[in-house]
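P.,

For your records, the input lines for the assembly:
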Amino acid sequence: MFHSMTLHNEEGSKENNFGLGVFLGGVICVFCSLIFFSLLQVPVPSRPVVELIEQNLASSGVSNPVTAVLLNFRSLDTLLEIAVLLIVALAVMPNKLDSTSQGFITHVKNPHRNDVLEAFLRWLLPSIVVTAGYLLWTGASLPGGAFQAGALLAGAGILLLLTGSYRVDFSCDIAQKMMVVGLVIFLIVGVGVATNSKTILDFPDKYAGALILVIEVAATLSIAMILVLLYHSLTNSESDKYAPYNVDRIEKEE
Amino acid sequence: MHSTAELIIPALILIPLVASILSMLFTTRSVQLVISFLAALGLCVVVQQLYLGLNVDSSTLKYEVGGWAAPLGIGFLIDGLSMLMIILSTFLISVLSFYAAFYFNNKPVAQRFWPLWWLLVTGLNALFISSDIFNIYVTLEIIGLASVALVALNDSKEGLIAALRYLLVGLLGSLLYLAGVALLYHSYGTLSLLSLAEQVEVNLLNLMVLILISLGLALKTAIVPLHFWLPYAHGSAPAPVSAILSALVVKASFYLLVRFWMEILSPVVSNSALMLMGGLGAGAVLWGCVKALRAERLKIMIAYSTVAQIGYLFLLFPLLTSADPEIDSSELRQHTLTAISYFIVAHACAKAAMFIAAGNIIKTLGHDNIAQLQGMAKYMPVSLFTFAIAGASLIGLPPSAGFIAKWLLLNAAVDTAQWWWVIVVITGGLLAALAIFRVLDLAFIKPESSTLAFDKNKSIYKLSPFMPYAGLFLALCTVALGFNAEVIINLVSLGGRE
Amino acid sequence: MEGSLYTAIGIAMFGIGLFGVVALAQAMKKILAVNICGVGIFMIFIANSTAVNGSVDYVPHAIVLTGIVVAVAGTALALSLVCRIYDKTKQQVGK
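Structure tokens returned:
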């Protein structure tokens, strides 16, 4: 779709760069094989972390070690990761952040709406929401967790947008609050526990499980919201705000 | 477990993060400004306390996030170098926030500027205090994405293309860094800077790690020949953003480069590798100055001068080695570190002042074509005076921080008997002087030409009187630092790691 | 050894991605290449998450999850920039 969209400093036909391409490919090939063979020479190290995780899993509040690492042992990474998502959300949002009086989701009459998908979603949506809840809950003991549940919920939101009968307004109050709720709850819990132990994000053993669940629920909402916003901003350009998936435009251009 | 000063280390991350969330939720101009003012004030207080704490203990400040010790959890660590970077960033953030409050005035862009600005500060502070190489990757991404989002606030086609190129380069740089992290974790099973520094030995894999990490960080630091993205990204961003990008963001990746070359991977670093870095630096000094001399737009010229100044930072790497075995290597390392710190501080203040001056000129004239600046000194005396003082520091004229920095560099070059770098430094200084005097000559000495007459009433925007003085303040700081060299020298030697 | 096969594939994907970012001219291809490169690195992480006695090290798993989210964020920002540039230029498709 962006065939003529090249980066400014690299304009020019491919043929001209063929020699350069072969050279670069050769260099990268040699470099990668060097990495591989030097990796083989290094003996497999002892990993003290493995025993440490086993020892401390009981006091982490969850029984799934990956969740324990993500939300307890290395929770700062996860906190900053949600901040990364927020940056991108801010970057793709419309210029004015003023909250508008419009509701978050409004029903619109769209001649191109997808009736079949809309009818199907009446069955599908509830089950997606339930599955997302299950993934979130099961993250404590089995693979799953906030990001997986958030991604699933975002999928539901994207399907809803694809029907073409709904118009969402991400500059409204509730949408913005939902985008930051994950970070806000994370910060409140993380700093709140510091009143007890004087260290941020140091969850007391007794309540760790409950606190992690609270953080995950909030994070799921934010992640789902931001992912839908990202999809929405990519499909809705300035010129056609009302058609989520404007078939006309694409046909016209092709 | 932690001393009082250590307890407040997380505030360096939490304050800007909270400021960002609040300024996203409450978008009224006055509220956003109050939030930013309080956040800057809070950061200053925290930094002052940390500085006192570091002075009392005279060792490093440590913190374990979540109470989990190093191999399992993430640690914070503040030594002299990171303290210097934190002080520098807090100082510049405060001044630039003040400037940005007037710069954006009532524009709708400001509503998105403040949350992104404070998220960028979060990333910078987290990078300077983190002692976990994967956590540093996440902070690098925060810095990279927030910078791109800030550059993209300029909603013109050129600005967006510059932002996209900056983003792709940034992503590639962090991925190369992450590949290095993956290999290091494979061999040592730990992500902590301290335990890695103890364990790293010389082998082929670590050499590969050094190449990957250096390549990634050099791409982000924009050393010639990897600088192609910098002039456009820095040249097309709003003025406060250009200032922070040149003053701090490129320094963040350079700071990491220093950490890896001088501490973590130092056994792997060979003399020829150091010489290679010096050679790249020399190339950058000369090329950056030549391009600055030929630039047509003021901001592009300042951006190329950043390319040259980054070259000086790389010039310091070969001074870590000496042919003379009598010179103590740890002493040499301390000297080099001091010179590097001095260059970082001097350039950061001068360049921020210059971008502020350029921002004022653009706001007043509506353009920044150097040729059309002829005789403009009588309309914008303060801004052009700021430009002159900051320029003097960049050239290395006494009395300025830039002069001390170059003096330290020349001393080190003579001490280690590497006289050829002296030629590069002097040529670079001359070329920089030519570039800066070209602008000053036009603006101050040449009379206003009648064809380019500037109608004061036609001015698109009336500058707030505070805007030029914010820049002048920074420029005067570079002069003040020229008189008080000990401050930085003492700070860097504090809590130095062996 | 199974682990080294996956490591080799990971390194190969890393190399392919690296080549794509550097050598291909189109912005969309570059964005895809960055993603391939990232997946290669995640694969190197995962392939090396077995310790000596066969027990599993979960830190790389968590790291990869964090890395994926960061990669999603970077890709989304890049795509939105491409869309905005496209809006600005209104270039003809397929030219």
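Two observations worth noting. Chain C touches chain A through 50 residues (CB under 8 Å). The radius of gyration of chain C is 17 Å.

Regards
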